[in-house]
Specification:
This protein is an alpha/beta fold. The protein has one domain: Aldolase class I (TIM Barrel, Alpha-Beta Barrel), CATH 3.20.20.70. Helices cover about 40% and strands about 15% of the residues. It has helices at about 20-30, 50-55, 85-90, 100-105, 110-125, 135-140, 145-155, 185-200, 205-210, 225, 245-255; strands spanning about 10-15, 40-45, 65, 95, 125-130, 165-170, 210-215, 235. Helix 1 (about 20-30) packs across helix 11 (about 245-255) and helix 7 packs across helix 8. The structure holds 1,3-dihydroxyacetonephosphate. 1,3-dihydroxyacetonephosphate binds near residues 99, 176, 216, 237 and 238.
């Protein structure tokens, strides 16, 4: 499969860090850094921090804003949930869906992930669908089987094109927050599995033009190995995104031009 040219995307995932009091400071500090132009740089902030992040950004578009989750209907009796329409009010362009921490701690299923991804796409927000095997599955050699099932389920209701093109994040659970990053060649194989599931549902053109990014213990020291690996179109960064200067360095390292 030929992988078409796609702009590298780096997404900072703060997870449950930085409420509104700290979010603006992060954005301002990050924007004071020298930032490469040839990358899509995105920051996924807690819902309660979206207003503060947007206020600090003003009209600036770098970094773009992402949510960490989103519900599957526009409104209704769903206490505690946040809809894609609400996210749009903050200029959110992307939202993570199905992060393993949500699957593990909140029981999020493949079916919920599929509904969330479709609702985001219909609203014009690009779903960043997170998939990945856990350590037991990895040890049993089930990476491909797990990814195929997760990807196939997640894209059940998606459209292949449109302005809010889907993105996949391969995040092996055993590599998240452990300092044990998945070797780039292994990530490349996983990305091929993801692309072949996309190809099966749509076609090779869609598979070749869907961005698939890697996440799990990525930092400024190893980012270059990933973004120079064929089929890896960027990274989803947790711990190494919490310091705005460190994340800016990571962005410059990924794109030294
Ligand atoms: P770490 O970069 O902290 O390993 O987290 C990865 C992750 O889960 C990003 O979504």
């Amino acid at each position: 499969m030929e992988i078409g040219f796609m702009k590298t995307i780096l997404i900072a995932n703060w997870k449950m860090h930085y409420g509104p009091m700290k979010a603006g400071g992060w954005i301002r500090a990050f924007r004071r850094e020298r930032l490469p132009k040839d990358l899509d740089i995105v920051v996924a902030v807690p819902h309660v921090s979206l207003a503060a992040a947007r206020a600090s950004l003003g009209r600036a578009s770098i970094p773009a804003l992402a949510a960490q989750d989103s519900f599957w209907t526009a409104d209704g009796a769903y206490t505690g949930e946040i809809s894609p329409a609400m996210l749009l009010e903050f200029g959110v362009q992307y939202s993570l869906v199905g992060h393993s921490e949500r699957r593990i701690y909140l029981g999020e299923t493949d079916e919920m992930v599929a509904k969330k991804a479709a609702a985001l796409q219909a609203a014009g927000i690009a779903p960043v669908i997170c998939v990945g095997e856990n350590e037991a599955q990895y040890k049993k050699g089930e990476m491909a089987k797990v990814l195929k099932a997760q990807v196939t389920a997640a894209i059940a209701n998606l459209k292949p094109d449109g302005k809010s093109a889907m993105i996949f994040a391969y995040e092996p659970v055993w590599a998240i927050g452990t300092g044990k990053a998945c070797p780039p060649q292994a990530a490349k194989e996983a990305h091929e599995v993801i692309r072949s599931a996309i190809q099966k549902k749509f076609n090779s053109n869609v598979a070749e033009h869907t961005r698939v990014i890697y996440g799990g213990s990525v930092d400024a020291n190893n980012i270059n190995e990933y973004v120079t690996t064929t089929g890896v179109n960027g990274a989803l960064v947790g711990g190494a995104s919490l310091d705005p200067r460190a994340f800016a360095l990571l962005c410059r390292t990924a794109n030294p031009a």
